[in-house]
Amino acid sequence: MRSRTASCCCGQLRIEVHGEPLGVGVCHCLACQQRTGSVFAALAAFAGPYAVTGAASEYVRTGDRGASFRFRFCPVCGSSVFHTEEGDEGAPVLVAVGAFADPSFPPPQDSVYDCRRHAWVQLPAEVTAFARDPT
């Protein structure tokens, strides 16, 4: 089974995941825009188990539908690396695609909160866009 390692910019915080992503998507919600400092977040979902090395700072926020998400980022360089949903032990871990530093990483299949997508951001035709979160 293939493994991949994602890390922060300075390399202090790492997560190793196994297998192919369950899904890859982009999120245009305003919280993701503020969290990443970009106009969208690119995320890949992986089933457990996974291994984390290094120290992480954490931030918990509540999404539009009431679920809470725990974001982990490097306390040294500030890079956002991964997050999980609170209270759902079986939920996949969501890893920032850019943290893999792999230009050959699979492209997104889905785009959520497309209602908040910047007009100049163009997505490939095969990406399924949802005005909000479909789940």
Brief synopsis:
With 135 residues, this protein is mainly beta. It has a single domain (3-129), classed as Metal Binding Protein, Guanine Nucleotide Exchange Factor, Chain A (Beta Complex). It is 5% helix and 38% strand.
Task: Please tell me about this protein's structure.
The longest helix has 7 residues, at 30-36. This protein has one domain (3-129): Metal Binding Protein, Guanine Nucleotide Exchange Factor, Chain A, CATH 2.170.150.70. The strands form two sheets. An eight-stranded mixed sheet has the order 6-7-8-9-4-3-10-11. A hairpin with a 7-residue loop joins strand 8 and strand 9. It is mainly beta and 135 residues long. It has one helix at 30-36, and strands spanning 3-7, 14-18, 23-27, 41-46, 51-53, 57-62, 68-73, 80-85, 93-96, 110-112, 128-129.
